[in-house]
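ok trying this again, last paste got cut off
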Amino acid sequence: MRVFDEIPFPVLQVSLDGSFICYNIKFEENILPYFDCKGNILDFMPDFPFDGEREININKKDYNLLVKKDTDKYNIFFQELKRLDKYKTMVSLIFIDNYEEVLDTMEEFRHPLILAIVDRKIKKMAKELGGIVRKFEKDKYIFILSQDKLEELKENRFEILDSIREVDMGNTIPFTLSIGIGINGNSLDENMEFARVSIDFALSRGGDQVVIKDGEVYQFFGGHAKEGNRNSRVRARVKAYALSELIEDATNVVIMGHKHTDLDCMGAGIGVYSIVSAFEKPCNIVLNEVTSSVSYLYQRVIEDEKYKNAFVSSEEALKLINRKTLLIIVDVYKDSLCECPEIIEKAKKIVVFDHHRKGVEYIEKAVLTYHEPYASSTCELITEMLMYMNKSIPIKPLEADAILAGIIVDTKNFAFKTGIKTFESAAFLKKRGADTIRVKKLFKNSLDCYNARANVIKHMKIYRDNMAIAVLEEKTENPLLVVAQACDELLNIDNINASFVLCKLEDYISISARSFGEINVQIIMEKLGGGGHQSISATQIRDVSIEEAELMLKNAIDEYFKEEE
């Protein structure tokens, strides 16, 4: 027998002891099949509230139970709770990465036509998905879409990236897009903030990709095109001015790079030291270990009176930090990779200079960040600071050598990631006294390192027809340097488009990766917890053997090519 059939939600009537008397059709359809009881509500809910109300979950739906007592029975009303825990509207920002650069390669009369094609493709995508897109600057759009349509975009791997890249109206370089998406925030405003963070990530990773921020989780799509080069000097001038203001306001400056210091890191640190010295502020560089890759430069530098007391250990540096200390971090964006992460926690004002493609973990406390993945090296960014600082910065030939060495080592003698600004920076340093012969001497290796590198190359294996995988098995004084150099050398072999070299270090396996750009080794290394650049990257894997690490590497490579198909 049913009652309350006219009521549009489930209703149950029970006796004073909880036994079923009757119920309506909505209860029979939506509740009864999921009630594990034998005709008494106490079987299903021993703590049933015979007065008042409570919430209950039945078949993954939340209900509010409202109990009304009659003389000899209870009427129980099941009201479904429509929860809006997450805002189901996706907010996205779409930026054209290289607007000015593409137009500069074309005749001016073609500009309106190619821009109209790009605009139409973006609007067509939005219309087909039932979304709204609006241009708010010449190269920037905001895109609003129902979140359930996001899966459709993921399934086609955001084909809008390829579609825009294929636009050809006589431009010698293609347009590329960066897309930042925010989802599952608690409000539309929070999703917009997620989108802003995502677009910053996409741009700092080289552009031509999509970054989705879902709460604290990030997803990445695209990023397979070669990184472009930007020639805007305005950004560098603004950063140089901001840096000078921060140095002026500081009582002292501490410079810090990453662990296992290389020439780009040390060269950048010395470049910043020369800037700070011009402001006559006390300055120190944090350095715990002098690796063999920087030993020649370090010996030359400490012989100079200016740098006699410049280098300090982490313990000494922590004592130097006060409320008005400026911490300048170079050649690294992850706090866990810094020479002394504890300094970051203690410092109040932080500046970051880096050129690596940004990953999920990054230094959030920075008051000034010059993070430019298009740059060849951090030394190139520091040279821009020297060029555009609002006061003349005297540079010794020794300092010019150090900065130029950083550019040369990261570009592999101007072969990789070399743009117009790279050569301008090198020319500037040459004018300030840099000598290429002196710089060349900084790259000398011991005979043991040379032999170890030769053995790595000799025993390398071919994978997927065009990739080399090798292992450094013998002990050597600087395994990381040997691995990096062997990785570079392997690319000189015919038909090898990417190289990977592994070595055992303490409790982890280090992997270096190189390519000519057609294979994005940065994406492969990210799958193993690392990062870097499209053509130069690395990672560290803890608590595994060399054999296990090599298998993980091959699986990451296979996964990368599966995504490319």
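PB: full thing came through this time. The mean pLDDT is 88.
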